[in-house]
Amino acid sequence: MHDLARKIREGDARALARAATGIENRDPQALATLRELAPFAGNAKIVGITGPPGAGKSTLVDALASALRRQGKTLAVLAIDPTSRLTGGAILGDRIRMQQHHADPGIFIRSMATRGSLGGLAPATAGLVQLMDAAGKDYVIIETVGVGQDEIEIAGLAQVTVVVLVPGMGDDVQAIKAGIMEIADIFAINKSDQPGADRVVRELEAMLNLAHGRRPAIVKTVATEGSGIEELLAAIAQFAPSPKPPAPAAEAPSIDHLGIAVEALEQSIAFYQSIGFAVGHRETVDTEKVHVAMLPAGDSRIELLEPTAPDSPVAEFLQKRGPGLHHVALRVPDLTAAIERLRAGGARLLNDPRPGAGGHLYVFVHPASTGGVLLELIEEAGN
Fold this sequence. Notes:
Elements (H helix, E strand, L loop, with lengths): L2 H7 L3 H12 L3 H10 L7 E6 L6 H14 L4 E7 L12 H4 L9 E7 L11 H10 L4 E5 L16 E6 L6 H4 L10 E4 L7 H13 L7 E4 L8 H11 L14 E8 L3 H10 L6 E5 L4 E8 L2 E8 L5 H9 L2 E8 L3 H10 L9 E2 L5 E5 L1 H4 L4 E5 L4
Helix pairs in contact: 1-2, 2-3, 2-6, 4-9
């Protein structure tokens, strides 16, 4: 993993901010980092907060952030703002409106300019959502600009879409139902302490009674007081899909046995028996020209190797080095896959897979590729 991607996975906020800027600017290095981090994404809950101007979306997001932090959750807030004609940047700057969180390492806040894009989102929003997800955030909250009827792109990006409405809209509920009203998983009636909140709820329920299919939840909130926020989070949790299950961990190689070259098998067996070992199995492996005595040792074993001919690899080892550790054998779940990875990495193999003692398949890896030790990889018979 490259340095920037590693730092992001380690929780480095500066690295995360640098990558976010690069993704917004379509920097090739940042986009490469995003691709490198892609396998780590898929666990965050992606929540879209949308609705007409003046509904109190930013205040609601601020209240949600505080509640999630009290639960010990980490989150990123991507606030989409109109674009400044002078600087090209975000005009409103939700980081300013959420200053109470600026010193909290568990919250990452990013204001994004629409840069002329319609639909309530910025062009790089999807990339930043994936980045925050891969960085390990539990929640990614996307606050759209104030939207009208047709700006509904958030529904294609968020797992849960919260449409924020306020009292006093009157017939406006009916006027906008053909747009953002149809993408809601949850309606948050914010400022519900004001007159007309119950009327908005009744109008929504009447409209939903005429619809078919899934039924959105309706939650009344007063974001400035934190009222209804826990209920809103509960509704979000109900609609959000569960995180993807972790990929099953690949079975790690384990030590199968230690191969020890000996000059006299019987004499060596007597020594190991004197310290409590017992011979579990004996056989002759013609392909290696060696007698083998296997001494179980827990989940692994010691294999004593006595050559049967002067040109045996074990005989050559004894002639050069004398008795001692000949090789270390690792048990792998898939020998073919292990060989492919070794060859792709340039490792030097001494043989093609072939049957060995006990009927297992094995291959030897040259000490030059392993740090100086002859390594045997084996796959047990029947795998």
